[in-house]
Each structure stands twice: as C-alpha cells, then as structure tokens.
Design brief:
mainly alpha; 2 helices; 0% strand
Length: 94
C-alpha cells in the first residue's frame, strides 16, 4: 500500500519540489550569463566575417574577442564565489 502525503507542504527536513523562481530572466545571474553569451556570439560573428573575407577591421575583431573573454572570466569568477559560499555554508555545523 503506497504512503500518500498529507498535503502539498513539504515535511520538515525535506526540500520538497524545487522550482526556479517565476520570471527567471530577472535573476541577476541569468542576466550575467545571457550578456556573456551575447558577447560571445557577437565575437563569433565578427570572426566569421573576417575569415570569410568581408571588410571587417582586425582590431574590432580582436577587441570583440577580448570583451567576450573578459565577460566569460567574470562569469567564472562569480560561479567560483557562489560555489565557495555554498561549501562554506555546508561545512557549518548546526
């Protein structure tokens, strides 16, 4: 005989259903990742144009690539700080 839950509320000690908050695009981390992704896509387009022989200034391509790299490094540093904070919290005793 299966055990049925009493209600929708999770029992103490469990997380329950984990869902992302509504409006996930308003999350600052999502915005940061989206901006890094768009910067990388812009750099890729400029590089493809340069390789295809279209008239693109080489310094604009290099600048776009460096911006994309810097944005990616920022995302990685934020990720590392969040992981460090999580690990610190998990090490604390109750």
């Amino acid at each position: 005989m299966p055990i049925m839950p009493i209600g929708d509320k999770p029992i103490i000690g469990t997380i329950g259903n984990v869902r992302p908050p509504s409006g996930g695009k308003n999350n600052p981390f999502s915005k940061l990742i989206d901006s890094a992704d768009s910067q990388q896509k812009k750099a890729d387009v400029m590089l493809e144009k340069m390789v295809a022989g279209e008239p693109v200034e080489p310094h604009d391509v290099m600048l776009s690539l460096r911006k994309a790299e810097a944005r990616f490094q920022l995302v990685m540093q934020v990720r590392n700080k969040v992981i460090d904070a999580y690990q610190t919290i998990m090490k604390e005793q109750i």
